[in-house]
Amino acid sequence: MKTILSNMQAVIRGLAVMLVALMLVLLFGLATAQARPGGGHSSHSFSHSSSSSHRSSGSSHSYSGGSYNSGNTIRFSQPLPPLLVIVLLIIILIVVITINKQINSQQQSFIARPTDENRSLQQSVLKAQLDRFKQTDTNFSGILFLDFVHSLYSKFYSYSTHPEFTYLSPFLSTELQQHFQGAGPWTVNEVVINGIKWLEVNSQGSETDTISVDIDANYTLHQQDKRTRYAVQERWRFYRQKGVTSPEPEKMQTLCCPHCGAPAHFTDAGVCGHCGSVIQKGGMQWYLGKRVVLGTVALASNDLVSYAEEQGSQLPSIKSPDLIEAMNQFQQAHGLSDWQTFWGPFENDTVKAYFLAIYTQWSQRDWQAVRHLLSDRLYEANAFWQTLYSENDWYNRLDNLLIKRVELVKIDMDTYYEAITVRIFAACNDYTEDARGKLIGGSKKIPRQYTEYWTFVRRTGQEAHSKPYSLSQCPQCGAPADNMGQSAECGYCGSKISTGQFSWVVFLITQDEVYEG
Q1: Which residues of 400-422 are buried (b: 16+ CB within 10 A; e: fewer)?
Q2: Whole-prediction pTM
Q3: Domain limits of the chain?
Q4: For position 127, what pLDDT does the model report?
């Protein structure tokens, strides 16, 4: 497919060059060639990269220009009238723009997301793999596994080249344990995970189970007084011994000793610094066995606040193939007489209310005010952007927020958690300005139409409140949610709110061009 596209582009560009050359001949008249010793040449190359604001995913593309060599001197005669020259120049410009749009269109069609049929097939295969795996490990939770991956990824980089890297020994293969040995000193921080995509769940092995995921992230590398931010895509494969049962949520949501539950503090040999237990790789918890970097792109400073055109907003919603069946199961599990009994309050009091509250506080650069509505991972990922804006004294304004509609696309339930994913169609004036009101990016006048996939989670068995509670209150004790702290523990009752144990929390926000079901 790539070869066909490349050949097509080459043919189109070749035709464009021939057409321009023909126009030039007609424009300036017939030409005569004369040899010139040591003839001239010119060459050029350029690269193009694009990224978006905090709500969208960035991309990068590189192109290389060619070179033109000539050993002849060209002399033209009989020029055409000026008016005809102008007309022909306009024609050339229109032709070149049209051809370039055709090329870009071909490129976009090539990199488009999988077809609905292929995506549905992939989802069905993955669901079958997960269902088969849950038959042998009834405690397995996709939500908790993603929490585990997120935590390990963040510490893998933030601990790199530091003594603390040994703390991860039970969660890394021997090869990866030695990955940063001998590496020069550097520091990695501001790790942001944009998305984790399931690839495969394999429980057919004779001795081990494996799970493969793709991770889309970015981080800041400090090396030799130089600070560079990178966007990366990586593929991680996890292993665990056959027959192991997943630990409880408290031991999956943070990296800890799977035996005593204390924070990870291990030696190279996997000995827990708290209980002294030797933790065998894959014996009680997953460990990272293989890691492949699929791509790395250095981001320019202006990429962090640039505004790219929304992608995928016009595409149909990606709905789970078993959505109707999942709705019926959810309805039966909660003893609902009909679906609307649940959906009406959920859409208004949770989806819309959370959306407006979260983005309103984001716009005011007060991320802490909605800490209790966010999962730990979502809060940590977006805290980087809030810090960036604060350091530069910028504000990402989202004025005139309007929710046009909400669509249910997926329901997932397991032993510990139930998750509901919706697609939100919205619009707002999305722009960044400094403290004096100077526009940095975006538009204060033109509304930005967009859609996002939001995933809400709560602990299984947690029923809705008899009446909507104020989002400015702790859902457990009812005290003001003004003393949550970064860990989302209520300063009044001590309850940790961000786990979904007391109410719904936003687990993930995914952009259209990234979401695949």
Answers
A1: eeeeeebebbbbbebebbbbbbb
A2: 0.73
A3: 2-110, 117-299, 312-517
A4: 87
